[in-house]
Amino acid sequence: MTAEAPTAPALSYGRLIPVTVHFDDLDALGLLHNARYPLMVERAWTELWQEHGFRFEGDWAAAGDACNAVKELRIGYEAPVTKPGTYAVHLWLERLGNTGLTYGFRFCSADGSVTYAHGTRVLVRLDAATLRPAPWSEGFRAAGRELLRPAD
Predict the structure, then answer these.
(1) Is 100 helix (H, G, I), strand (E, B) or coil?
(2) Strands 85-96 and 68-77: what pairing?
(3) pLDDT by residue (tens digit) across 84-132?
(4) Residue 8 — very low, low, confident or very high, per pLDDT cuts 50/70/90?
(5) Residue 89 host element (H or E)
(6) pLDDT tens-digit profile of 25-71?
(7) Gap between the Cα atoms of 109 and 21, Å rounded
(8) From CA 148, how far away is CA 94, in angstroms rounded?
(9) Of 4, 84, 87, 88, which is least surrounded by CB within 10 A?
(10) Coil, helix or strand for 139?
């Protein structure tokens, strides 16, 4: 008889996106450098939005909903990542407004069971010509609604 590995907790909201930590992402102490966490989260969001057809391809006027700016980033570190390998980023939306949104994230083990860091980030959709807030498209809002975290 063989023992089965414990199953990962099922996500009740959001998406779990695999990410890879490489040796050169580690600092001199052998820990994932603190600046790499937001970078990995950004890459995970980019992958998720590209699945829905939202991407930046070099033309801000054509970028639509991909034309946005960060208003705020908060991150807390819970446990060190001490080796390269496969991990994941759990992504969800906390709030989806007319021109802005707040997303939550957890940098975690590949199965989502261990949290290394967590945080939120506020984005504002911009008009490419004026750089003023602009409303999200209905297609973006529909994709975003699928990622909203249920109210507690």
Answers:
(1) strand
(2) unpaired
(3) 999 999 999 999 999 999 999 999 999 999 999 999 999 999 999 999 9
(4) low
(5) strand 85-96
(6) 999 999 999 999 999 999 999 999 999 999 889 899 899 999 999 99
(7) 11
(8) 6
(9) 4
(10) helix
Buried b (16+ CB within 10 A) or exposed e, 87-99: bbbbbbbeebeee
Q: How far apart are CA 88 and CA 112, in angstroms?
A: 7
Strands ordered across the beta sheet of 100-109: 15-21, 85-96, 100-109, 115-125, 68-77
Cα Rg, the chain, nearest whole Å: 17
Instruction: Return the amino acid letter for 49.
Output: W
Please write the tens of the pLDDT for every residue from 69-88.
999 999 999 999 999 999 99
CA–CA gap between residue 95 and residue 112 (Å, rounded): 22
CA distance 89 to 35: 15
Cα angle 83, 86, 90 (rounded to 5 degrees) comes to 115
> Could you tell me the pTM of the whole model?
0.89
Q: Where are the alpha helices (DSSP H) in 2-96?
A: 36-51, 60-63
